[in-house]
Amino acid sequence: MRARISSFVLPALIVVVAGATVPFLVGFNQYYVLLALQSVIIASIALAWNIIGGYAGQLDLASFAYVGLGGILATTLMTEYNITPWVGMFLGAGVSATLAFFIGYPLFRFGVKGVWYALSTAALVVILHEVSIMVLGSFDYYIPFVEGWYYLRFRTWENLYYFSLIILAFVISLNLYISRSKVGYYLKAIREDEVAAEAVGIDIRKYKLLALMTYASILGFIGYIYIVSQRTFSYKTFDSSLSVYIAIIGIVGGLGSVSGTFTAALILKVVEEYLRGYLGGVLPGLHLLLFGVLLITVGILRPEGLSTLTDALVKKVKARIWGGAP
Amino acid sequence: MLPSSNLILQSVLDGVFLGFLYSLMALGLSLVFGVMGIINFAHGDFIMLGSYLVWILANSLRSDPSLMSVITVPLFFTIGAAIYVAIIRPVLGKEPLIQIAVTVGVGYVLQNLALMMFRAEPRAVQISYLNFYVNLGLVSVHTAKLTSALLSLFIVLGVHYLLTKTWVGLAIRATAYDKEIASLMGINVGKIFLLVFGLGISLTGLAASLWMTFGQADPYIGSSFGLLTWVIIALGGLGGVSGLLASSIIVGVIQSLTMTLVSPSVSLAIPYIVFIIVLWFRPQGLFGKG
Amino acid sequence: MSDAVLLEVVNLSKRFGGITALNNVSMRITKGEILGIIGPNGAGKTTLVNCVTGIYKPDGGKVLFLGEDITGRQPHFIALKGIARTWQKIRPFYNMTVIEAVTAGALLRTKDVLKAREEAAEILEFVGIPRSKFEVLGKNIALIEHKLVDLARAIATKPKLLFLDEVVAGLRPHEVDVIADVVKKVNREMGITLGVIEHVMRFVMNISDRIVVLHEGRLLTQGKPAEVARDPLVVEAYLGTKPV
Ligand SMILES: Nc1ncnc2c1ncn2[C@@H]1O[C@H](COP(=O)(O)OP(=O)(O)OP(=O)(O)O)[C@@H](O)[C@H]1O
Ligand SMILES: [Mg+2]
């Protein structure tokens, strides 16, 4: 039994330990620490997406509906009522999971799938975007500066970064745990063929809903950290194209592959930042254009994404650690 | 304060006009999905690209945008055919997710190409011959909207005629029905696909020309038209021209009414709310065959 | 108790638009038997299995399993009750390994993944898939292997009744013999009652205890394999001439 627990906790620990050295490596340069924080947030969101998109095979395009809802809730509770985000983030998770339930239950109940599922979830982001213009107005809300662990906000970015690493570790472990558990087998079976899955006794509605709500609650939880890392929120937090971008990371990484999704998130974020830094002034959107090209190339030439490469690497590392036996 | 009945009538009329244009926008998408089974997430971005092209052409030629269709239609047919060969053909018959991925990729390229070239500002043409209102007492008619509605209807019916009454149309419908049987009947399925994809994209070029007689180009209209046209297809169900027209007009009218009576942001959200609810109860579309 | 009725179908009907795929079909499957279900193309055999297993909701009639009315229940409920099936048109889990696919079936009766994997491995060996194939992805195996994995996946749910929808269609003669042996073993050694839909007469006549014949959505006749083979109605149905 111990071997099994280590198999999904160890990789997460390795990532945390390696990640924790980053601030030291960059000499606490705030630009790079913030970049690392944003990368970890994106990786966590993409890995949460992996549960509904990668394992369950539902092309969900609503990630920032849940990030926005949970995040704006926790932020508002903090600024308006002085409620600590430690509570707010869990409430955010709960609210996002509830929204996911009300969206997912009827969609799965009535058998909405494939492209229609993708479109409904894309529509959800647009709906929240427009509704929040009515509710919030078209302003950017800047969070007044408060400091300390009670608010999870600090003068420098390191503490929040370490905190985000813990969330990332949790999401990685959860992914690995799911993929080795009954739920994971069932979600993958649903991804491969819903009818055949039902016929071997899988309650496909229940398991899809479970995957969707798990994903949504992680995003609702992360929302606060995301907003703090952006320093602001507004109706624009309900961002359709970022939501599509998360799904792109999942596809480029390889559906259901934890190492592939993680790698894709980091590479794309770093490339994005590089291109934005060097060319953004001259050509805004170039990095996204290149992602488009990358996506086309992956779709045509390597539909399994980066996963074959990263899986091979993980195997090698494992073999090193355990001395050969897989 | 209740809105006057005139205002409502006016807004319904504008919605109907807009709806006809939407039907033209959705027609190409419906063809490509219905015949080839290709899930094109870049459809709206072609309308966006067309709008910019029309903006450049109409301003530099100092002429009406609708006339630019003479250029956009053949050009977009060629672009569509090229994209089919390079990008779509390799993923034919693959999992929907892969098809969505590559077309999202195409959409990203187009959208960010526009962003790089034109930045994010909206652009409208300087000359539009028909950009005025004719007052009819109860309501006034925006002539550009009226013309684009009539032309859209004409084209939609024309394509319907092409599909139902000509040999090519028969071949297209046979292919849509069953690729294998069609090719056994001696139909060159590859050519039909090329034709349909080219036609689908060229129709976006046409729709863009009409849109620009009263609308604006910006890099983000692609996403909204893309989602909106999918919504129309979902409501209309595949195949029927009457379903397409009916659902387009419903969407147009709903949008226009909520714009007048509630607020612009609600008018953008409402078609999607309707869409999700309709999907729950009729996954095959409001007018689709059950 | 060897003639205990396991499944009883009463006046089952199913229409698709204008086509009546099943027209008031009534039949029984007894515990322990191998029932052959035959009939020309379009007779309604697959539709019968789909209605029994909950893939389609019948338009009329009843399905009773061990006396319990399961008509129109959801497929996963029916699988849990103990009816499994294989697919005429294969429905493999392409991006899962062979062992994972069968484990997914075995997880119906346990939560423990390790235990389910062990069961899956045993069943795979039982149907004749060598261990060397266990870690191969579904998309990389041959047709006969697909059929066997599909069979293993269904057996893994520990059914009381298992429908095989044309397991040997498209296979070569020696492969047919391999599957015939496996099917007999499933019935005798595992004690699973079987409903075997088949066009390949040599196969179905050889393994069945009893045969029912469907034709144009109706139950044409039933009996011992030898009787059915001699029945003029059956011969005519297969030759395509309608009895007047
Ligand atoms: N999903 C469906 N939609 C419409 N018609 C269907 C559907 N499934 C079956 N049918 C029709 O019902 C009839 C019976 O089909 P079924 O597949 O049950 O026949 P079968 O006996 O299994 O034939 P075969 O030996 O060819 O497999 C056929 O006319 C078929 O076309
Ligand atoms: Mg059949």
Q: Could you explain how this protein is built, in words?
A:
The complex is a heterotrimer of chains A (326), B (290) and C (244). Chain A is mainly α. Chain A has 14 helices and two strands. Chain A has helices at 2-20, 22-25, 30-55, 63-81, 85-109, 114-136, 158-180, 182-192, 194-199, 204-230, 240-253, 258-279, 286-301, 307-321, and strands at residues 141-142, 232-233. Chain A is globular. Chain B is 73% helix and 2% strand. Chain B contains eleven helices and two strands; from the N terminus they run H-H-H-H-E-E-H-H-H-H-H-H-H. The model of chain B has no long low-confidence stretch (mean pLDDT 88). Chain C is an alpha/beta fold and 244 residues long. Chain C has nine helices and ten strands. Chain C starts with a strand and ends in a 5-residue tail after the last helix. The relative contact order of chain C is 0.17. The chains are: A mainly alpha (326), B mainly alpha (290), C alpha/beta (244). The interface between A and B is large, with 48 and 46 residues. Bound molecules: adenosine-5'-triphosphate and magnesium ion.
SSE succession of chain A:
HHHHHHEHHHHEHHHH
User: What composes the largest sheet of chain C?
Assistant: 6 strands, mixed
Helix content of chain C: 25-40%
Main beta-sheet strand count, sense and barrel state of chain A: 2 strands, antiparallel
Rg over C-alpha atoms of chain A, rounded to the nearest angstrom: 19 Å
Strand order of the largest sheet of chain A: 1-2
Mass-distribution shape of chain C? globular
The strand order across the widest sheet of chain C is: 6-7-8-3-9-10
- Termini separation of chain A comes to 17 Å
Which band does the percent of strand residues of chain A land in? under 5%
Task: Please tag this protein with its features.
heterotrimer, A: 326 residues, mainly alpha, two-stranded antiparallel ribbon, 2 strands, B: 290 residues, two-stranded antiparallel sheet, 73% helix, binds adenosine-5'-triphosphate, binds magnesium ion
State the gist of this model.
Chain A is mainly α and 326 residues long. Chain A has one domain (2-237). Chain A has helices spanning 2-20, 22-25, 30-55, 63-81, 85-109, 114-136, 158-180, 182-192, 194-199, 204-230, 240-253, 258-279, 286-301, 307-321, and strands at 141-142, 232-233.
